[in-house]
C-alpha cells in the first residue's frame, strides 16, 4: 500500500514532527522500520524500495537522528549503515542493547572487512548485508526478520498465557470450595483437602486410611459401592452422582438426617496403570471432587414450587391448574360425573390499581385470593390465571347448583369492603362457568367456554355469574367482525384525525397539538384510539393504519398552515411496530416531500419501551429523522424503563410528563418529587417540556410555578376535529391581530401513532 505524498515527505524529512505525522497517517498495525544511512541517494532508494510494503517508514541521516528516533518511537526493525558521519553503527547497536530496546537490526555496510561483520553479529544483529545488495536479497531479509520477530512475539505471548493459566489453576485448586479426594483400590482415602473438615467436620488425619463408607449415609451405601467400585474410564466414568454424607459434630455424635445430613454431588473417575501390552488396565484407585449442593437442592425445591405457583398469591398458576384440571377430567370421565370450570375476572380492579398504585393493587389481589379460597370445598382448586383473573376447578359435582352456590359465595364475599391501609375499597367479579362434559370435554374447550361466559357477564353489567351456552360464541365472533370492520375502515375512509392543543400558559396561546386517531364506526359511533389501536397491533393492522395516518396528518397540515398555524408544532406518537419497519424513514421523507411540509414542523414521540426493544436500531432510525430535520420527543417519561442513558444515547429534544404524575397534584403548595425531578432533568439537559393530562387549575399553577409552561389537557382543550381546530386557530389569530408584527418563536413539532 502506497503512503500519501505528504507521508513520503514526512518520512524522508529528518524533522521529528513530520516523521511522526507519517507514522500517524499509515496503518496502526504495520511494522515500524527505521532506515539509517548518511547518503541521501541510498536512503531515498531504500525508502522507495520499501514504500510499497505495509510498513511504517522513518528515516535518519546520521547517528544522532537515529538515537533521537529510537528514544521517541518503538521500532520493529532497524536497517543500519555502519559508517555514519557522527558515530558508527556499532555505537548505535550498543545504545540499543544498553537501553534494552526491543528492535531487530539488519546491518548494511560497504565495509569488506570481517571485523565489521563480526562486531555487528556479536552485538545481536539479525543479518549483515554488504553493499551493494540485490533488491530481492534485502526484501527477503526484511521479510524473514519481521516473520521471525512475529513468531517470537507469538511464542512469548503463548508462554505468558500458559504461565498465567498454570498460576490460576494452582490457585483454584488450592482455594477450591469443593472436597478433592483420592481413594486407593480398596476404597480408602489416600488424599483429601482441608475442605472436608470445613464441610463435614472430619480432619484430614481422621479420614486418611479410612474407608469411604464412614462418610456415606446408610441409605446411600449401595449406590456408593457401585460408584466407587466400578472400573469405567473416560466418558463412561461416574459423573454427578448425588450422595448424602454424614457430618461430624466434633463430639463423636452423628447428626440426624433431617437437619444435619448434607447432599453431595461427586464426580469420580477410576485411575488405571496400563500394562506393557496396553491391552488391559490395572485399577489402582479413584480420584474425584465432592461438591456441597445442599443449598442448590433447597433452591431447586423453591424454584420447582415457584414454577407451579403464583408468587404474589401463592396460588397454583396456570400450568399447575391445567395439570389438576386434566386429572379432574380423567377422573370425571372414569366415574361418569360432572365437573365445573370457573373463570373469575375482578371488576373495577384497574381503577383501584390506577388510583392507589400497584403495591395496593397487589395487596388487594392477595386479600381476594384468601377470601375466594375460604369459599371452596376440599379438593377444589383455585388458581391465578394472571392479572386480576382467577380460575377454579370444582370436581365431582352433584349438579349445576353446586357450582352456582360457590359462585354466589364468591360474589357475596367480594361484596364486603376491603381495607387497604385506611382506604375502603369495593370491588365485584364477573364469573363464567363451563360444565364438563356438556360444555366441553378438553381442558382448552372448558377454559375457553368459561372465559366466553365471563365476558357475557361483563357485557351485561358485571357483578354476576353465568353458565356457558352455545349462543355465547357470537361474542367471540364479534372480535373477528371487529377486525374485518377495521380493515374496511381504511378502505371506506372511516378514520379521522383529532387534535388536542398544547398551550403556552405564559401567553395563553396554542403552540402545538397532539394528533389522536378516531374511528367513525358505522354502528358504534366515534371510537377513541384506545378502543381499537391495541387490537390493531395484535392483528397486524398497525402498519397500514400508520401509513394512512402519516398521509392524513400531512393533508391536514396543509389546511392547518393555511389557517395561520405554520408556527404551531404537530405531535405524533410513533408505534414501535412502525419504527421497526425498515422503510419508516423513507415513508416519512416521502410524505413530507410530497405534501411540501417542513420537517421542522414535526416532532416524533417515542415511548421508553421503544428504547429497549432494539436500542441500536432505534438510534439509527431516529438519527436519520433528526438529519432530515424532524425532532424527537420521549412520551410518558418515567412510567416505563426510565434511564438517563437514553437521554444521552437517543437524539431526544422533548420530554413529556405523563398524566399519571400530573393527576397526583392535589395541593398547589404540595411537594411532588417525581415531577420536580423530571422538570430538573429537562432544564439541565436543555430539553423542551410538555405536561399531559392537566385538568385542574391547581395542577396548572403548580407546574407553571416549578418551570413547566407548556401543557395539554381538558383544562384547556379536549381533542377536537380538524375543522374545529382550524376555527380555534383562526380565532386566536384574530384576537392577536394587533400584535401580528411581533415575531413568534416557533417551537419544535411532535409526531406519534397513539396506541
From TrEMBL:
It holds the Pfam family Response_reg. The lineage of its organism: Bacteria, Pseudomonadati, Pseudomonadota, Betaproteobacteria, Burkholderiales. This is EAL domain-containing protein. CDD domains: EAL, GGDEF, PAS. Keywords: Phosphoprotein. Residues 32-146 form the Response regulatory domain. The keyword Phosphoprotein applies. GO terms for biological process: phosphorelay signal transduction system; regulation of DNA-templated transcription. The modification 4-aspartylphosphate is found at residue 81. The keyword Signal does not apply. It comes from the Bacteria. Residues 337-470 form the GGDEF domain. Residues 479-733 form the EAL domain. It comes from Rugamonas fusca. InterPro entries: Biofilm_reg_signaling (IPR052155), CheY-like_superfamily (IPR011006), EAL_dom (IPR001633), EAL_sf (IPR035919), GGDEF_dom (IPR000160), Nucleotide_cyclase (IPR029787), PAS (IPR000014), PAS-like_dom_sf (IPR035965). Residues 165-236 form the PAS domain.
